Amino acid sequence: MSAEIDPIKLMKQEVGKAAAKRVQSGMIVGLGTGSTTAYAIQFLGDRLNSGEIKDIVGIPTSFQAEVLAKQYGIPLTTLDAVDHIDVAIDGADEVDPQKNLIKGGGAAHTREKIVDSLAKQFIVVVDSTKIVEHLGSTFLLPVEVIPMAITPVMNAIEKLGGKPELRMGVKKAGPVITDQGNMVVDVKFDAIDNPAELEKTINNIPGVLENGLFVGVTDLVLVGEVKDGQTVIREM
Ligand SMILES: O=C(CO)[C@H](O)[C@H](O)COP(=O)(O)O
């Protein structure tokens, strides 16, 4: 009996590979977070170790990205040591037709927004299940909050019409703690009609560090999808 291949895993692998292929020798590369980007980091390491490309350095967006880059032999640097980022590759939880995003499913959106928005080219890698007409329709909006402000921030979000929920750990009692030592609130909004305005309004609440709306940052979306039984890559 042959093992079933998970089509979503296949789409993530192929789209990660397609993004990694766009990296050229000498580039400074923003390394995103999540299961899709993990494939891009793996393929990038393969290209580097086989000699197909050389002299790349990565800037990780999370502890996870740092660990993977080290595992796959990609040298790392920091924002203090470079004056630009050539390309950033990162996943997303939702992508709308304007290429605006919801990110932060891995609680890494604060560092991701810093690195992704600095890149000359920001490439988003997703499987087709992430494409939506309206942001917020399938995924809650992650908001990183400084712990002492968790109650006033949740109250302020409720006044904006959102339903906030403190993100709890899996295999850990208590809340998820970000790489910066903060907490994450996931917010249900009935409709996000103006993502640019909501992004600014939420970030204006004292105690909020960053939210997962990425508006006007994306240059290219690579979407992995299954057509006639084949995995293909579509550009948006
Ligand atoms: O924003 C992120 C982490 O904060 C991820 O990029 C996003 O959650 C997508 O992850 P995956 O590729 O595992 O679906």
TrEMBL record:
Organism the protein comes from: Moorena bouillonii PNG
EC identifiers of the protein: 5.3.1.6
Known pathway: Carbohydrate degradation; pentose phosphate pathway; D-ribose 5-phosphate from D-ribulose 5-phosphate (non-oxidative stage): step 1/1
Gene Ontology biological process: D-ribose metabolic process; pentose-phosphate shunt, non-oxidative branch
GO MF entry, a single one: ribose-5-phosphate isomerase activity
NCBIfam families for the chain: PRK00702.1 (NF001924), rpiA (TIGR00021)
Assembly description: Homodimer.
Domain of life the protein comes from: Bacteria
SUPFAM superfamilies membership: D-ribose-5-phosphate isomerase (RpiA), lid domain, NagB/RpiA/CoA transferase-like
Function: Catalyzes the reversible conversion of ribose-5-phosphate to ribulose 5-phosphate.
Positions that bind substrate: T33, G34, S35, T36, D90, G91, A92, D93, K103, G104, G105, G106, K130
Catalytic activity: aldehydo-D-ribose 5-phosphate = D-ribulose 5-phosphate
UniProt-annotated catalytic positions: E112 (proton acceptor)
Membrane spanning stretches: none
Entry-linked HAMAP family: Rib_5P_isom_A
GO cellular component terms, semicolon-separated: cytosol
Family: Belongs to the ribose 5-phosphate isomerase family.
Protein's UniProt name: Ribose-5-phosphate isomerase A
Keywords tagged on the record: Isomerase
